[in-house]
Amino acid sequence: MQYDVKTPAEYLDNLEDDWRREKLGVLRALIKKTAPDLVEGIHYKMLSYQDERGVIFHLNAQKNYVSLYVGDARKIDPEGLLLKGIDVGKGCIRFKKSTPIDTTNIAQFLKKLISLWKKGEDIGC
Predict the structure, then answer these.
(1) How far apart are CA 104 and CA 66, in angstroms?
(2) Coil, strand or helix: which one is 59?
(3) Measured in whole angstroms, how far is the alpha carbon of residue 21 from the centre of its chain?
(4) Which residues contact 82 (CB under 8 A, 6 or more apart)?
(5) How far apart are the first and last CA of the chain?
(6) Backbone phi, psi, residue 58, to 5°
(7) String of b and e for 51-72 (b: at least 16 CB within 10 Å)?
(8) SS3 at position 74
(9) Read out DSSP for 102-119?
(10) DSSP 3-state assignment of 29?
């Protein structure tokens, strides 16, 4: 879902009060813990996380899932071991209502993603 907002606080205020808000909150806290130096903003009407070089990834609540847009997930996790058990497209990681975030390896995936980005590796689609 897209919200016409200018700040992360406005984005969060516009979220429905349901399971998507909860999942997005868990992922957001994990991102902040894993990469406290990233700046949270709004880009393409979604939450975005960036450094001085630009946006690294986006986080968004959709109708049927919460999505983490990461570029090309296969460049970050070629064997699919870190994203096992999660619904993954080429550049989108989808957390459905039934996906328990705490039993996934998304924290390790985020660490690897940020590490590759900081090294200047190509992680884009």
Answers:
(1) 15
(2) strand
(3) 14
(4) 76, 105, 106, 108, 109, 112
(5) 22
(6) -120, 155
(7) eeeebbbbbbbeeebbbbbbbe
(8) helix
(9) GGS-HHHHHHHHHHHHHT
(10) helix
The pair of structure tokens assigned to 33 is 């813990």
Domains and CATH numbers, the chain: 8-117 (3.90.1150.200)
What is the spatial distance between Cα 89 and Cα 91, in angstroms, rounded to a whole number? 6
Contact (Cβ atoms closer than 8 angstroms) between residue 81 and residue 71: no
Q: CA-CA distance, 55 to 40, in Å (whole number)?
A: 9
5, 42 contact by CB (below 8 A):
yes
Residue from 51, 53, 88 nearest 69 by CA: 88
Token pair of 22, please? 């909860």
> pLDDT tens string for the chain (125 positions)?
778 899 999 999 999 999 999 999 999 999 999 999 999 999 999 999 999 999 999 999 999 999 999 999 999 999 999 999 999 998 899 999 999 999 999 999 999 999 999 999 999 98
Six token digits for residue 46: 């979604």
Q: What's the CA gap between 77 and 93, in Å, rounded?
A: 12
